[in-house]
Amino acid sequence: MSIPNYGIAEIKKELQHLDNSQLTELCLRLVRYKKENKELTGYLLFDADNERAFIDALMAESGLMFSQLPYNNYQLAKSLRKILRLLGKYIKFMASSEAEVEVLINFCRNYVQYVDKRASSTYKPLRLIFTRQLDKIRKSITKLHEDLQFDYSQDFNNMVGEAEEKLRWLNMNDYLL
């Protein structure tokens, strides 16, 4: 006996046949089982209507986390990955390339400001964290509308220029758009 897997189209059709009380019960049951489901539902119900305020709060939270980074290289890399997991989760919830670019550019600016320059030049995992985010931003910018691409490309190039001044190991020409 095999357990059937249903596609989104089949589930959508079945959901249309349920009444409001059954839908509410179904949603509450989904929320109970996974923390991420609960967080997504909370975002959709309370924060999705004002994405700008949510992005600002997310950037403020990440700034606070950056200000509390440890000095040990290994612990520093772990903390940066933790910040990226948090940002990645909420970027996924927002499902917006614009928001992704904005939040990741903010992450890179915070990286340049808070991460010890000597540590990032000698500890390869710290350099890789930063360069991977630069690559991810470049890829996300290409998915945007042409006007937005221009605006975010300028912002990205300015950020890379600032980073090159502070991080000796970074070659700006490798990342410019």
User: Segments where pLDDT lies below 50 for 5+ residues?
Assistant: none
Q: In one word, what is the shape?
A: elongated
Helix content: over 70%
Cα end-to-end separation: 54 Å
Beta-strand residue fraction: under 5%
Structural domain count: 1
| Mean residue pLDDT | 89
Question: Using only CA atoms, what is the Rg?
Answer: 20 Å
Global structural class: mainly alpha
- Counted beta strands: 0
Number of helices: 9
Order of helices and strands: HHHHHHHHH
Keywords summarizing the entry:
177 residues, mainly alpha, 9 helices, 79% helix
How is this structure best described in words?
The protein is mainly alpha-helical. It has one domain (49-174). The protein is built from nine helices and no strands. The chain has helices spanning 8-16, 20-33, 35-47, 51-67, 73-94, 97-114, 117-122, 124-142, 146-166. The longest helix is centred in the middle third of the chain and has 22 residues, at 73-94. The radius of gyration is 20 Å and the shape is elongated. The mean pLDDT is 89.
Q: Can you summarize this structure?
A:
By secondary structure, this protein is mainly α.
List strands and helices in order, with pairings.
Elements: H1 8-16, H2 20-33, H3 35-47, H4 51-67, H5 73-94, H6 97-114, H7 117-122, H8 124-142, H9 146-166
Helix pairs in contact: 2-3, 3-5, 4-5, 4-6, 5-6, 6-8, 6-9, 8-9
